[in-house]
Every structure is written in structure tokens, then in C-alpha cells.
């Protein structure tokens, strides 16, 4: 009996848990309302999945075409990341379709906006909106179906009220009020003010001495402190520039002289080396001739010339 009770409890849990822990629905918001013919309004489709993370939803919205006309479908504010099929609608069939996907980690909540459908009322009456072919898949790696159903929406529409023309304004004639006669006021003469004679002071012009022979003396204008300072600064700058010029000039001369001395020294060293080389060659040649004379070998014409030069140099030294 105990074993049978455990088996019954296990089967009951398997049957009950999927319906209680994994439930998702689709619904409209707003679900009701009243409008007039010619008005436009919007209805959004929401997804609710509070117990299980979901990652896909789809469905078809049906609406009566004799009363409503769908004008557009909007994805603004949707929880969907991707659209397997772009939302669309048909006023001939009265259908609006959607099929969306949500990237990982999915969505958990009771107010996940999916799409928004915009309608325009074209006739009076009552319109019922419904969702068919609904599907909501769990974000569990297997795409488990957790959709349990949907709720519809109902809207009522009345004829538009006729516009009442404004009544013409009735002008009320107003009689002008009589203007009161101006009151005359008698003004008393003001008391006479005694006139006081003001004797102006006599103006004595300054005496200007005019030099004889119509010669105008020019008074030198004094030089201000700032003019003196500007003049002294100009002189200092001039001497600084002159000093810089002299330094550059003599430096250029020094460089040129140093290069000339260095070139002369190099040329002198080169001439000395050539002289030493020539002397070494001359001595070696003479040694070679002496060796030939020692061994009584026949000398060439050039060698005889060298021997004569050596003898002549020896005679000159004596």
C-alpha cells in the first residue's frame, strides 16, 4: 500500500508541475475601450512568463475588417532581439502575424511587449480581437513549449458626433455715454517775482607778448620719462645686435683660419711622405748599383748616370 501511494504521488507531481511551474500567456493591452468612427488607436500584444525564462514567441492576431482597418505594425519597445519573420498584417484577411526570438538569457516577467498594432475605426459596432496559433518556447536549451493560452480584447465604436456650426455672434449696440462738459477753473495770477540784476564780472584777457620782427619763439617740448626709456632700450638693443654680429664674424674668420692651417698641415705632411718615399727609393737604387759594381756586373745607362751623379755630389761636398 505504501509503495502504491509513493508511485501515485510521483505521477501526480509529473502531471501537475509542468502546468504550474511552466506557464506563459499572450494578452492585449489595452483590452477594452470606446472610440468614435474615424478615430485611430493602438493595441499592443504582451507576453507573460513569470516562472520560466522564454526566448521565442509567435502568433496571429485576428480583427474584424468591417469595423477596423490596420494601418501599421510597430516593433518599438519590443523585448524581441531578432525576428524570424517580420511582423505583417492584411486588411483583406483581418490578420496580423508575428514571430520573434529573444537572445540569451531570455525573458522572465509579466509585461513583455511584443508588437503594437495601429488601427483606424471605419464603422460603428463592437470589435473582438483574438490571438490564434500562439506559441511561447522556454529558454532551456530544448525549446520546450510553455504556452498555455491567450486572452482577447473587446472595443466598442460609436458614430462620430456631427460638428455643430458656431452660432453667429449678435452684436449689441451700446450707446455712447455723454461726455461731461469740461469744468473751467479760474487760475489766480502768480505773485510777481522781483528781478535781481546780476552784474557780470569783467573778463580781463591775458596779455600775450608778441616778439618784435614777427618772429615766433618755439618752445621745446620736454622729453618724457617713457620716451627716454624707449630711446635707451633702442640703443641697448642696437649694441647687442652689433656685438652678436661681431662675434659671428670673428667666429667665421677663426673657423676659416683653422681650416686653412689644417689643410696646410695635411699638404705639408703629404709632401714630406712623398719626399721620404723618393729618398728611400733613391737609396735603394744606389745600394743595388753598388752591389752590381762589387760583383763586377755590367751597368745599364741609367745606372751609370746615377753613379756619375753620386761622384759629382761627393766632389761638391769635398
Structural description of this entry:
- This protein is an alpha+beta fold and 318 residues long.
- Helix content is 34%, strand content 30%.
- The chain has three helices and ten strands.
- It has helices at 2-21, 225-294, 301-317, and strands at residues 24-29, 32-36, 40-62, 68-74, 82-90, 95-101, 107-121, 125-138, 147-150, 153-158.
- Strands 1, 2, 3, 4, 5, 6, 7, 8, 9 and 10 form a ten-stranded mixed beta sheet that branches.
- The longest helix is centred in the last third of the chain and has 70 residues, at 225-294.
- It is flat.
Q: Which sheet architecture does the biggest sheet show? A: 10 strands, mixed
Order of helices and strands: HEEEEEEEEEEHH
Strand fraction band? 25-35%
Straight-line distance between termini: 159 Å
Shape: flat
Low-confidence stretches: 7-20
Structural category is alpha+beta
What count of helical segments does DSSP give? 3
List how many beta strands DSSP finds: 10
Task: Give the integer mean of the pLDDT values.
Answer: 80
Q: Please estimate the helix content.
A: 25-40%
Rg estimate, integer Å:
63 Å
Write the layout of secondary structure elements.
Layout: H1 2-21, E1 24-29, E2 32-36, E3 40-62, E4 68-74, E5 82-90, E6 95-101, E7 107-121, E8 125-138, E9 147-150, E10 153-158, H2 225-294, H3 301-317
Parallel strand pairs: 1-9, 2-10
Antiparallel strand pairs: 1-3, 3-6, 3-7, 3-8, 4-7, 5-6, 8-10
Amino acid at each position: 500500500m505504501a509503495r502504491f501511494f509513493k508511485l501515485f504521488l510521483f505521477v501526480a507531481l509529473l502531471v501537475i508541475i509542468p502546468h504550474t511551474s511552466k506557464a506563459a500567456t499572450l494578452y492585449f493591452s489595452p483590452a477594452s475601450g470606446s472610440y468614435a468612427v474615424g478615430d485611430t488607436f493602438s493595441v499592443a500584444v504582451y507576453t507573460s512568463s513569470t516562472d520560466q525564462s522564454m526566448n521565442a514567441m509567435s502568433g496571429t492576431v485576428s480583427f474584424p475588417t468591417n469595423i477596423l482597418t490596420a494601418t501599421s505594425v510597430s516593433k518599438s519597445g519590443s523585448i524581441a532581439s531578432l525576428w524570424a519573420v517580420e511582423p505583417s498584417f492584411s486588411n483583406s484577411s483581418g490578420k496580423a502575424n508575428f514571430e520573434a526570438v529573444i537572445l540569451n538569457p531570455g525573458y522572465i516577467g509579466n509585461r513583455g511587449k511584443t508588437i503594437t498594432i495601429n488601427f483606424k475605426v471605419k464603422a460603428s459596432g463592437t470589435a473582438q480581437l483574438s490571438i490564434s496559433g500562439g506559441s511561447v518556447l522556454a529558454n532551456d536549451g530544448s525549446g520546450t513549449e510553455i504556452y498555455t493560452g491567450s486572452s482577447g480584447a473587446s472595443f466598442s465604436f460609436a458614430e462620430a458626433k456631427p460638428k455643430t456650426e458656431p452660432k453667429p455672434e449678435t452684436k449689441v449696440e451700446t450707446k455712447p455715454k455723454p461726455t461731461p462738459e469740461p469744468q473751467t477753473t479760474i487760475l489766480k495770477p502768480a505773485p510777481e517775482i522781483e528781478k535781481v540784476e546780476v552784474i557780470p564780472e569783467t573778463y580781463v584777457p591775458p596779455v600775450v607778448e608778441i616778439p618784435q620782427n614777427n618772429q615766433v619763439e618755439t618752445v621745446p617740448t620736454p622729453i618724457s620719462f617713457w620716451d627716454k626709456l624707449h630711446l635707451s632700450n633702442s640703443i641697448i638693443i642696437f649694441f647687442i645686435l652689433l656685438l652678436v654680429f661681431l662675434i659671428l664674424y670673428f667666429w667665421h674668420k677663426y673657423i676659416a683660419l683653422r681650416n686653412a692651417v689644417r689643410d696646410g698641415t695635411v699638404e705639408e705632411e703629404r709632401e714630406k711622405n712623398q719626399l721620404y718615399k723618393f729618398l728611400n727609393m733613391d737609396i735603394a737604387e744606389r745600394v743595388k748599383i753598388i752591389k752590381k759594381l762589387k760583383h763586377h756586373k755590367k751597368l745599364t745607362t741609367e745606372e751609370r748616370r746615377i753613379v756619375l751623379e753620386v761622384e759629382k755630389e761627393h766632389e761638391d761636398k769635398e
